[in-house]
Design brief:
single chain; 498 residues; alpha/beta; Rossmann fold; 14 helices; 26 strands; 31% helix; globular
């Protein structure tokens, strides 16, 4: 499956597309900054706008400070802070120096922070939470801890922007929904090729302005939103946290053209009386978790905005996207992006991918790498299906597949049906060990009222085969989610066994 030509503008010849030229991310960024040093490129609510020339200078200063305390090419630097121009300057400095950024979730607590520090062994940690200093030093006293201003003594000039495209740029720790997070090592080539593919597919232009309320520790906000804006030479308005009013204010104040979010963000935006203001944007993108078809339709009815859903992973950056100009199909993630190949293999059909965007492997995990690859193909662990028009849909995770009475049940299919129930606002379907069925289908729901098991069983049974009906339904106040809004089903299963 390599029909990525469907993303190309009519006048573009696929033979002329070059996603990787051996360049590094900072080399591309710096070329923009040097050509237009006066151009305003990044904004945050505290500092206002920063120009390209200012970011060029700030990042060079921080790079010299890091080099002065011993950071060299290939050394890891942990970064964890709220989105700000200071964080952007520190991140770009790390990459310009040739070091490897380790963006880390600010919601992590002591044990999680200790795991990342022990695993990645950073030389420096740039953090904005005081308690992290104690946690990091208790794990490794040799790590130098500083705040996002990186207020260290500046050394002499160092060579910047010298790394090649195949050099490691970033270690992104997976969400850890099944055990301890693993570090995915991504090269400059991986990150840059994906950004170039999105530049083509989404018609990303220097004139675009992105409102970015996603955190900069995750691939969606960092690897797509920030890296993409800088590589294209576009502008970005950073919000330190997601707030509905702040998003709409930023769209209007800055005459924004783009917004990237997760489904939970869109759910809150569409509930606002200001939801029609989304029509001022030329592109809204959703990812990191499935966008329900009914939410997709609701956004369109309220604002006229057809949200573009895409599919990516920490290990691969972006893989698949609904088309910009053709139908953006609800419930589907679309077609492979330029340079990406996708296949469905096995039974149940697992999505496997390859391309210049696919990571180098897990950090110091040779056994995990053997399991993760099928020859040259990366095994995503996601289960997929193609419709008659070639649109790819994600039907579940291989490890989440429920086998009930010998039949395969894909949780996503059952969840889509349950979500149509008038009293249910959110749901998640998992398998529960059962003596009779092997696994029983059970549903966790956030609902406006109490629900009997039979009500949901019959509701699903009217729309799907009997073996897909939930045997039990549990009402809960909220579904457990990670920082990007993805439901943590392992925690629901713990409730069943605990």
């Amino acid at each position: 499956m390599s029909n990525w030509h469907r993303h190309l503008p009519d006048q573009m010849d696929p033979a002329n597309i070059e996603l990787t030229t051996g360049e590094s991310l900072p080399a591309v960024w710096v070329s923009h900054w040097q050509r237009q040093p006066e151009r305003k490129i990044i904004h945050d609510p505290t500092a206002g706008w920063v120009s390209a020339g200012d970011l060029l200078d700030r990042s060079a200063v921080i790079a010299r400070r890091l080099a002065n305390v011993g950071v060299e090419q290939g050394d890891r630097v942990l970064l964890s802070a709220a989105s700000s121009i200071e964080l952007v300057a520190a991140h770009t400095a790390v990459l310009r120096l040739g070091a490897v950024a380790v963006p880390t979730n600010g919601a992590y607590r002591a044990d999680e922070v200790s795991h990342v520090v022990a695993d990645a062994r950073p030389k420096v940690a740039i953090v904005d939470q005081p308690e992290w200093t104690e946690w990091i030093r208790s794990c490794d006293s040799t790590v130098l801890v500083t705040d996002p201003s990186v207020d260290l003594e500046e050394g002499s000039n160092v060579r910047l922007d010298q790394v090649e495209g195949r050099a490691s740029a970033l270690i992104g720790y997976t969400s850890g929904t099944t055990g301890r997070p693993k570090g995915a090592v991504l090269s400059h080539r991986n990150l840059l090729s994906s950004v170039r593919a999105l530049e083509i597919a989404w018609r990303w232009q220097p004139e675009d302005l992105l409102v970015l309320a996603l955190p900069l520790f995750h691939m969606h906000g960092l690897g797509v939103g920030l890296h993409g804006s800088l590589a294209v030479g576009a502008q970005a308005v950073l919000l330190p946290e997601f707030d509905v009013t702040a998003v709409f204010d930023a769209i209007n104040q800055h005459e924004a053209s783009m917004f990237f979010g997760v489904p939970t963000m869109y759910n809150r935006l569409v509930e606002s009386p200001r939801a029609p203001e989304l029509n001022r944007l030329r592109l809204c993108v959703s990812g990191s978790a499935p966008l329900a078809a009914d939410l997709h339709q609701r956004i369109y009815e309220v604002s006229g905005q057809r949200v573009l859903e895409r599919y990516g992973m920490t290990e691969t950056v972006m893989l698949v996207s609904n088309p910009y100009e053709e139908e953006r199909r609800p419930g589907a993630v679309g077609f492979p992006l330029p340079g990406v190949e996708v296949r469905l293999k096995g039974q149940p059909p697992e999505i496997q991918v390859k391309g210049p965007n696919v990571f180098q492997g897990y950090w110091e995990r040779p056994e995990a790498n053997e399991e993760a690859f099928d020859g040259d193909w990366f095994r995503t662990g996601d289960l997929g299906a193609l419709d008659v028009d070639g649109y790819l849909s994600i039907v579940g995770r291989a490890k989440e597949l429920i086998i009930s009475g010998g039949f395969n049940v894909y949780p996503r299919e059952v969840e889509d049906v349950i979500s149509q129930h008038e009293a249910i606002r959110e749901c998640a379907v998992v398998g529960e060990t059962d003596d009779e069925w092997g696994e029983a289908v059970v549903a966790f729901v956030v609902a406006d009222r109490d629900l009997e098991d039979d009500e949901i069983k019959n509701f699903v049974g009217e729309r799907l085969a009997d073996y897909k009906r939930p045997q039990r339904t549990y009402r809960t106040d909220a579904l457990p989610r990670n920082a990007l809004g993805k439901v943590q089903k392992h925690r629901l299963k713990e409730q069943l066994t605990g």
